[in-house]
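hey m, so remember when u said the tokens were messed up on ur end? i reran from scratch. heres the input so u can diff it against urs
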Amino acid sequence: MKHETKYAEDATVIALQGDIDLSSSPAARTLLLEQIGKGKPVLVDMGGVTYIDSSGVASLVEALQGAREHNVGFALAAVSAAAMRVLSLARLDQVF
């Protein structure tokens, strides 16, 4: 997994690319939680995600929970078809 973080005045945009799987999901989780901890809304651009497994989904859910605890906005954008299939199967497409 690769990522690029851009800071805007009112939000942080994190673009994820590649596979978010068992080996990369801990790094994704850490990245997302660190940005949420800064207190700005976080937008995750998932257009470049080619594969996501249950550990990757769990990282997104944990980040969403962390955002809610910190009263910080958290959203997914440009979700790739591959990632949307997994999120839809887990019925998380409506949660995010």
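this time it looks ok to me. The first strand starts at residue 2 and ends at 7. if urs says something different then somethings off w ur setup not the seq
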